[in-house]
Design brief:
This protein is mainly alpha-helical. The protein has helices spanning 3-14, 19-25, 37-55, and strands spanning 29-30, 33-34. The N and C termini lie far apart (31 Å).
Length: 59
């Protein structure tokens, strides 16, 4: 598993934690620019929602 794959897996494993804890552990970027705190929170919420859909196909 590559470094990026490991970091993605670590993030997925941490999605159950408080957003503040995730933000302490990760710095999110897009096209080389660091996301603002609000953008990072929206991204985390998006990931949580998508994983819920995957785990509950009825949604």
């Amino acid at each position: 598993m590559g470094k990026v794959d490991m970091e993605v897996q670590q993030l997925v494993d941490m999605l159950h934690l408080d957003v503040e804890e995730i933000l302490r552990q990760f710095h999110f970027t897009f096209e080389g620019k660091r996301l603002t705190e609000a953008e990072s929170i929206r991204f985390i919420m998006y990931l949580r929602e998508e994983l819920e859909k995957k785990n509950d196909p009825q949604r």
